[in-house]
Write a structure and sequence with these properties.
It is built from 8 helices and 7 strands. By secondary structure, it is an alpha/beta fold. The N and C termini lie far apart (49 Å).
Length: 241
Amino acid sequence: MTETAQPAPRSVLITGGNRGIGLAIARAFEANGDQVAITYRSGVVPEGLLGVKADVTDYASIDAAFTEVEQAHGPVEVLVANAGMTKDMLLLRMNEDDFSSVVDTNLTGAFRVIKRASKGMIKLRKGRVVLISSVVGLLGSPGQINYAASKAGLVGMARSLTRELGSRGITANVVAPGFVNTDMTAALPEDTQKEYLSGIPAGRFAEPTEVAGVVRWLASDEAAYISGAVIPVDGGLGMGH
């Protein structure tokens, strides 16, 4: 019998990958045998992962992080733009900084890392870009005009990237999680959690690993002909959007 050849480990980078959904995604790729790096702004680097300190609002910081990853693992073949923030506030109380800072991190930050990653992907003539959006970007949510706008913008970004670089063997897709069991969700008051659960047909929050599995699949050969897609992982919360 001949042994099936294992695919070569890929250079994978996840922004904001040291906790929550980002860490679950990093672990999924690690389990796949890939060489995984994460960016982080604070906290500790989880064991087994290459951590590079970076701020997605600063292109020089991003450039330096990519250079470090390229030296260790080679050109980034899979990029997961996960880093994000919220500044929830009702419209009439939201000032311009509340709006622009969230957009700069969640949307322009994704632009910065995609631009840097695309250089290596174009040379390789292959690449996988997965943008982590949110059901809020599709449904909208009171008090989250800044966050919803930033997450909705990722859809246009992925689809434009698909049209621009699709012929180079590069795919770009969006994963839109709903409510996920993370520290942030656990900190919500019990009544609020019950209210959110009442609108989810599945009757539960997602586990981070369920989001991570979809991201890993989108970056696999099985999904090579999928690009510009928006895949919800929300238990049916956002159906029809």
